[in-house]
Design goal:
By secondary structure, the protein is mainly alpha-helical. The protein folds into 2 domains: 16-78, Winged helix-like DNA-binding domain superfamily/Winged helix DNA-binding domain (Arc Repressor Mutant, subunit A, Orthogonal Bundle), CATH 1.10.10; 83-221, Four Helix Bundle (Hemerythrin (Met), subunit A) (Up-down Bundle), CATH 1.20.120.530. Helix content is 64%, strand content 4%. It contains 9 helices and 2 strands. It has helices at residues 16-29, 41-48, 52-65, 83-104, 110-128, 134-147, 152-168, 184-192, 196-221, and strands at 68-71, 75-78. It has a two-stranded antiparallel sheet. It is globular and about 55 Å long.
Length: 222
Amino acid sequence: MPVPKSTVENSPRKLLRDVVLEKMLAAIQDGTLQAGERLNDDELVAWLGVSRTPIREAIAKLVDYGLVEMEANRYTRVASPTREAYDDAFQMLFGFGELAARWSFPRFEDADVKAFGAILDDMRAHAKAEDRALNDDIDRAIAFMVQKSGNELLLKTSESLLNRAKFVRIGEPEFVFWDVEQALDGFRAAAKGRDGEAGGALVRGLGRAMAEHLATARAAKA
């Protein structure tokens, strides 16, 4: 494993295991830790500058997220994204997004409408430029709606799903759903009108459109 020179800094506001988790998540997402790569305790200790305990706690969380595979006395390794994992994750992601829109939009305050609108502005700019940062914008939009939904269980379970969605994109690097731009005006109007049902319907429609677009792209590639 290539061992970066950076080390984890202790933070008084976070548990050490959470700081380690953030570092490892970022390393998996940016390819520093590659799919299929075995995770060696000694190398991780040298890289992160912490003891084995917070590393093992972070790895256990990554296993829960589906980003790391572990089999006792055999291996601990970064998982390999598959087409099936991608499809499952995004079916769930849009399902979460639909619920989050239905529950959050009626709860939006003026500041929330403004903040959500800023995310939509980023989405439009990145879609027009065909900038892959659009994927991150979509994650931000869903995370924002989840946060404002008022449902603690949705918030708690979305953490794993959002991280898994980012991870499985590694297996479909060529696919970005640029057509999301067509729904942005509708989202803005639904948020401004605090219309959760309209927002949920828009997310559901996007999920169907994305599935159809992905099927077409795969067929053309085949």
